[in-house]
Amino acid sequence: MSVVTHPATGSRTTRAGVDLTWFAVLTMLVSWVPLAMTIAVGRPGDVWFLVGTSGPTLAALLLWLAGHRRPRGPARPVLTRVWAWVPAALALGLLPSAAAVALAGPMFDPAAAATMIEDVGGLFPALMMLLLAGPLAEEFGWRGYAQPRLCRRLGPVATSAVLGAGWAVWHLPLFFVPGTSQAEMGIGSPAATLFLISFLPLSYLFWFVTERLSGGVAGAVLMHVALNTGVTFGGISSDAAMGVVLGTATLVSLAVAALGPRAASLTATARTPARPVR
After folding, report:
1. Which of 129, 235, 147, 255 lies closest to 191 in space, CA to CA?
2. Which residue range or ranges hold the CAAX prenyl protease 2/Lysostaphin resistance protein A-like domain (predicted)?
3. Which domain holds residue 182?
4. Is residue 152 part of a domain?
5. Is the pLDDT assigned to residue 202 strictly greater than 60?
6. Which pTM was predicted?
């Protein structure tokens, strides 16, 4: 019996592996070296910190400029399916923090929130910070560059596990930067452990929004904004709160995985136009 090979597919898979290796190396270098400088000088608001926390997106940009472009594939109907991924991104991003506030006790401090907004210059700068610090600084790398290439080699669960693990490891230097929420947790605390593990189920939920619901990078950015907003204004930092965040993200990701394609069709059913009778 002869075996039919597909050299083009194998070539694309190999190229994806090379791109992923370069992305991992560049992301850690572009992030960790500047963050090490920030830790050395002890000023989390300096230019080194801004560059370091933008490592994933900067690495993706450098690779794109070097010719390592996004693998070709079917175009996502991002705009035509906005009614599906926008509500999902907002709900899945806010749900873990909302559950933590409900189950671990109210942690929202209006006075602290007002002080934080005042410190950054007002509500608009605070909103821009929530958009830039994490969503735009990371998602063009994680979900825009790495995830499509991982999907060429692995299934959704394995892709999410690998990307979630890398996402967690990338955050480690932030535990040593004064003034960050990670530094307040402490690298050896239970909250820190729960925080790092939570990236695994969260990564699967990001995959669901970006791939299954065709949200793309826009969906990832919106979900990341919702996630950061909930964690920041919900005051999510205690061991109990992080435990609820991890538990909620895990249960929701398991439910989404169990439903499979039906999870994406829950909203699509009502929006699917009836076929004309011929």
Report:
1. 235
2. 123-229
3. 76-259
4. yes
5. yes
6. 0.85
